[in-house]
């Protein structure tokens, strides 16, 4: 009984700490529904006097739908390509025997250490030369070859017993059939985890579109809200409605897939 | 018996060693199969390997070459001329670069702080609360949110005159609260606070996984010996999660060098370069001043620093980690 009481007390305390921890989000949500005068009113009025849904309508009447659409396109394409490329590579690096496999794997793995910013200049030169600068294709390719994804999925493929694959081989199946019919279904939960993470990371990517896109009509939502913030002349309620709109899809996806995401992070220790 | 064996070979236990009969034919077939395997292997890894080569490995080689030139981006490639180690020499006396390196060191110092908070929270969430998964989600939320959105919100929260943080500080009696992002001696502190806030979730989830692997019996035995909560923390929890601690330290330090987006949106390295870090300075030199040669030299120095840190860490691992 005493133990139970302690546990309840600690839960309540943790709940309060959690609320403080989430304060920036709650503040964002609350400010996005207020009139401009109320935003900085003190003491903080968490529930707006008058709900200004109009803030959202105003933000969305501008270029937001276009930025959103660009983000959806780029994110879905990147996620699809990256998951395919990483799953294939992970399978090759774990379940097929061939000369030079480990050396190549180590080489690919070593590139993980390199901060993306360190190679921005040469990448920029390369993109100019290949006509990929200021295109969605270029932006998509930029995030499509993930060392982390390959590494994480490889961990899961290593966990599959070789017998499954050998038995399919005896049945006369080629590597591609084995990959599709045997290996991929076995690691499907891991693939979903990586797909969700890749979606989140790509949606949040700011550096890529900042440097490799120039035209306004190609901008993604992250560049869009940063630009909106600097141009809207400090109308904070609108800015908060904008940022809220930018993170909302992620929150939804995270709540739906949170089990996959948290388990995947715990198992693979992956970090964007 | 005969039948079962055949069955096994075909379906159930394919990894069983090949039949001893007809060895020559088998060998020939397996060699042919090996070549086929090799090709299949290359085929599977080729998209990843080609992508990494074109987008990462070739650019690194290019950066090395450009770092020895005085190239300015708007000039054609023909204008590029080699200046030897000039760029590197200039870096050593570039105050802003050195300041950026120092700022990076402060971000590294924040890594153990984050890990400490995360471990404490993980221990509490692991055993001492109801609604465990609810708390996991709460602390993980900042990690999945866009840095741009986070930076914009904190600009308002930290607003020196009417931001809620200072309003609260003034209410509790602090008359001259810091001016946070507007003050060059507080801006980096603000960046560090936000960084800790966003990375607690990741560290926490990993620590939780590690804690779940510690056997309860160890704590029960300690209880019987009359060990208090701090003794248990010091002598059971800390040593048993040390591989995780080490992993988080490596990734944390490597990631501290990658904090770019937060700084671009939040402070643009200011005020007065007080929040500039190596990658931010590199970006500014490359894309605002178009000094490609100089910024490439910064890239290479950064890579060398990361390489050295990784090497030290791998060496240190043998000393500090109990497996």
Which helices and strands occur, and which strands form pairs?
The complex is a heterodimer of chains A (272) and B (323).
Chain A: H1 2-21, H2 23-32, H3 36-39, H4 54-60, H5 64-95, H6 101-110, H7 120-129, H8 136-142, H9 147-158, H10 162-170, H11 175-186, H12 188-204, H13 207-212, H14 221-231, H15 236-268
Chain B: H1 2-12, H2 23-66, H3 86-92, H4 95-127, H5 132-144, H6 147-157, H7 164-171, H8 187-212, H9 216-224, H10 229-240, H11 242-256, H12 261-266, H13 278-287, H14 292-320
Helix pairs in contact in B: 2-14, 4-8, 4-11, 5-8, 11-14, 13-14
Question: What does this protein look like?
Answer:
Chain B: This is Multiple sugar transport system permease protein. Chain B: Belongs to the binding-protein-dependent transport system permease family. Chain B: Residues 100-313 form the ABC transmembrane type-1 domain. Chain B: Keywords: Cell membrane, Membrane, Sugar transport, Transmembrane, Transmembrane helix, Transport. The complex is a heterodimer of chains A (272) and B (323). Chain A has 272 residues and is mainly alpha-helical. Chain A folds into two domains: 2-52, no CATH class; 57-268, MetI-like (MetI-like fold). Helix content of chain A is 74%, strand content 0%. In chain A, helix 2 runs antiparallel to helix 15 and helix 5 packs across helix 9. Chain A is globular, with a radius of gyration of 23 Å. By secondary structure, chain B is an all-alpha fold. Chain B has two domains: 18-66; 86-320, MetI-like (MetI-like fold, Orthogonal Bundle), CATH 1.10.3720.10. Chain B has 14 helices and no strands. The longest helix of chain B has 44 residues, at 23-66. Chain B is globular, with a radius of gyration of 28 Å. Residues 1-25 of chain B have low confidence and may be disordered.
């Amino acid at each position: 009984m005493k133990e139970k009481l302690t546990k309840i007390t600690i839960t309540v305390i943790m709940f309060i700490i959690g609320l403080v921890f989430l304060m920036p989000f709650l503040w964002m949500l609350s400010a996005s529904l207020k009139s401009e005068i109320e935003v900085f009113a003190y003491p903080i009025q968490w529930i707006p006097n008058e709900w200004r849904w109009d803030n959202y309508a105003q933000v969305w009447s501008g270029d937001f739908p276009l930025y959103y659409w660009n983000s959806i396109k780029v994110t879905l394409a990147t996620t699809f390509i990256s998951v395919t490329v990483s799953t294939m590579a992970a399978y090759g690096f774990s379940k097929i025997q061939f000369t030079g496999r480990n050396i190549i794997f180590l080489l690919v793995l070593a590139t993980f250490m390199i901060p993306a910013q360190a190679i921005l200049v040469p990448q920029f030169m390369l993109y100019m030369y290949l006509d990929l600068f200021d295109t969605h294709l270029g932006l998509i390719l930029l995030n499509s070859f993930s060392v982390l994804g390959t590494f994480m999925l490889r961990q899961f493929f290593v966990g599959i017993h070789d017998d499954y694959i050998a038995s399919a081989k005896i049945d006369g199946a080629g590597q591609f059939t084995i990959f599709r019919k045997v290996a991929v279904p076995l690691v499907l939960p891991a693939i979903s985890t990586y797909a969700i993470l890749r979606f989140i990371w790509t949606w949040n990517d700011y550096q890529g579109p900042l440097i490799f896109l120039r035209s306004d009509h190609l901008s993604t939502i992250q560049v869009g809200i940063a630009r909106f913030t600097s141009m809207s002349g400090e109308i904070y309620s609108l800015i908060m409605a904008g940022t809220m709109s930018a993170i909302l899809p992620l929150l939804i996806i995270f709540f739906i897939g949170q089990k996959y995401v948290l388990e995947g992070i715990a198992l693979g220790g992956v970090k964007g | 018996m005969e039948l079962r064996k055949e069955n096994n070979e075909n379906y159930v236990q394919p990894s069983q060693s090949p039949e001893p009969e007809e060895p020559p034919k088998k060998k020939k077939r397996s060699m042919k199969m090996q070549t086929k395997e090799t090709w299949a292997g290359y085929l599977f890894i080729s998209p990843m390997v080609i992508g990494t080569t074109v987008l990462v490995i070739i650019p690194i080689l290019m950066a090395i070459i450009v770092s020895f030139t005085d190239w300015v981006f708007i000039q054609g490639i023909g204008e590029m001329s080699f200046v030897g180690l000039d760029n590197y020499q200039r870096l050593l006396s570039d105050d802003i670069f050195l300041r950026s390196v120092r700022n990076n060191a402060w971000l590294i110092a924040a890594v153990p702080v984050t890990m400490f908070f995360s471990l404490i929270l993980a221990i509490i969430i692991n055993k001492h609360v109801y609604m465990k998964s609810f708390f996991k989600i709460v602390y993980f939320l900042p990690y999945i949110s866009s840095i741009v959105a986070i930076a914009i919100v904190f600009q308002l929260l930290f607003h020196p005159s009417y931001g809620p943080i200072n309003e609260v500080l003034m209410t509790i009696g602090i008359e001259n609260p810091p001016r946070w992002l507007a003050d060059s001696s507080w801006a980096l502190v603000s960046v560090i606070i936000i960084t800790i806030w966003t990375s607690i979730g990741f560290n926490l989830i990993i620590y939780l996984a590690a804690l779940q692997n510690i056997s309860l019996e160890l704590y029960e035995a300690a209880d019987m010996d009359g060990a208090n909560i701090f003794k248990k923390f010091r002598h059971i929890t800390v040593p048993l999660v040390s591989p995780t601690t080490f992993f988080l330290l490596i990734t944390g330090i490597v990631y501290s060098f990658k904090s770019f987006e937060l700084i671009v949106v939040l402070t643009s390295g200011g005020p007065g370069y007080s929040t500039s870090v190596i990658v931010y300075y590199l970006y500014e030199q490359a894309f605002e001043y178009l000094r490609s040669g100089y910024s490439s030299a910064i890239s290479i120095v950064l890579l060398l620093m990361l390489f050295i840190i990784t090497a030290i860490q791998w060496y240190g691992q043998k000393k500090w980690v109990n497996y």
